[in-house]
Design goal:
single chain; 71 residues
Length: 71
């Protein structure tokens, strides 16, 4: 729903971006190993993917409603 999309846009996506940036810095400085880096990046990508799935579903519903209203 729209509230969930707003949550992702205002909180989850910025946090995912911060997670990726921090993971990249920590990996490049040797603070974390490759496996830890990969796990952190995967978590961030999962968040981004979930957001895209929500937006896709929201758009599908809107299009379906618009089509229904035209008939």
């Amino acid at each position: 729903n729209k509230e969930t999309i707003t949550y992702y846009e205002n909180s989850a996506l910025p946090n995912a971006e911060k997670m990726k940036n921090a993971a990249n810095i920590q990996f490049s400085t040797g603070e974390i190993n490759y496996l830890t880096w990969a796990n952190l990046i995967q978590n961030a990508i999962t968040t981004e993917s979930e957001y895209l799935d929500l937006v896709h579903e929201w758009n599908r519903i809107i299009i379906q409603l618009q089509f229904s209203n035209q008939n």
